[in-house]
Specification:
Rossmann fold; globular; 223 residues; alpha/beta
Amino acid sequence: MLVALSMAPVCSAESKSTSRAVRCDSVDYRYLLFASAKNEVSPAVLLLHGAGDHADSFIETWKSFAREKHIVLIAPDLPREAKFEQAVPNVFRCIVEDAKQQASIDPRRVYIFGHSMGGYLAYDAAMFDSEYFAAVAVHAMHIDNDYIWILDRAKRKTPIAIYIGDRDQFVPVTRVLQTRDQLVKAGFPVHYVELKGHDHNYYALADSINADAWKFLSEQRLP
């Protein structure tokens, strides 16, 4: 169930930034939408921030790049609650479908980029919504061994890009390598990038990570 509640646009000659509230399964969620002012069909990236962060700061790292590449950005504020994970498939589709009513989005080119907690949720989306999202990119997160069963839920082998710093103080490289190997063994196309001297701070290398992630994502389309 999707019910749009509010809209507050900020416009320029080239783009429009909008804060929206949408009701998904009787719960209200806020998200930011950044799209070209021109009514052209464009790819979209659902941006999933880390724990303790917010959509407002996370989307800023993508705006100039998105303006240049004509990408629609969709950045929800994510609740830091364990029970939210169960709602992820319905909520993410609900938010993207609302965004499709506001911007011209190519349904075959809807992607996800997630950092840390957002990356954890991105893995869920890659498995449970493999026929909705064309590809996923994750920074600084692995799949827990207790949840590796989610790989069997994917109806399509979603292409996945993984970025991890070799000095990440919260997510060990060994755990991410294990996730990479499990994905490859299960038949998922994986683009793995280990960032030398980099820690958990996505913002420190956001420009280069975003550019590489987009190179990978933009080559993927739903059949």
